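Holo model, adenosine-5'-triphosphate. Inputs:
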Amino acid sequence: MTDEKDSSNEKDNDRHKKRMQQQKAKVDERIAAAQEDKGLLLVLTGNGKGKSTAGFGTIARAVGHGLKAAVVQYVKGGWECGERNLLEKNGVEFHVMGTGFTWETQDKDTDIQAAQAAWEHSKKLLQDPSIDVILLDEITYMVTYKYIDLDEVLAALTARPKDQHVVITGRACHRSIIELADTVSEVRPVKHAFDNGIKAQKGIDW
Ligand code: ATP
Ligand code: MG
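Output:
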């Protein structure tokens, strides 16, 4: 390498180092400024794949730290779910809305009943300070269909124990829930295997 190239590399390196130091100082400042501890409301919404897996991932992360977690799945039918097999063994309580045979009738009244029962259970969890993290998987649809009352959901979320974290997943989350939330991520579909005729795969899709 020529001397000229050497010194230009050095300059590049110096500039890079300086930029990184400035960036680190800014990040450190923001970390130092973030002082508050509180239970978070997280929303994972959008049309792309990954909302429920991220929700369960958060539960796994919490359980890994010894926190107490509970899951309510607002899903139809006896949909098997790999995360349940794993997390139940690790002390996570599951409540699945659609396990009752009535759900299979596709009758609106029984759908509402099942949704209401799951919501009653969710409300108990939202009043229980011993539960550190709750996943309300696919609850957004219940609000959209008006199977459960939006104002009740907002009230229960607002009145929950101060340190309790809640994760909400599902497409088209109501804007009032998004406004109430602390952290909101929207998963955007770029492509999905299903569009190319590929079946849902065990361990990846369920
Ligand atoms: P996952 O459970 O895989 O994290 P999700 O919770 O983001 O997905 P849902 O809308 O709840 O998505 O749909 C659940 C199922 O539908 C999953 O099997 C998922 O792979 C599939 N799915 C999700 N998004 C799409 C999409 N854009 N096109 C086709 N199938 C999808
Ligand atoms: Mg989902």
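The radius of gyration is 22 Å. The chain has a mean pLDDT of 90.
Archived with the compound record.
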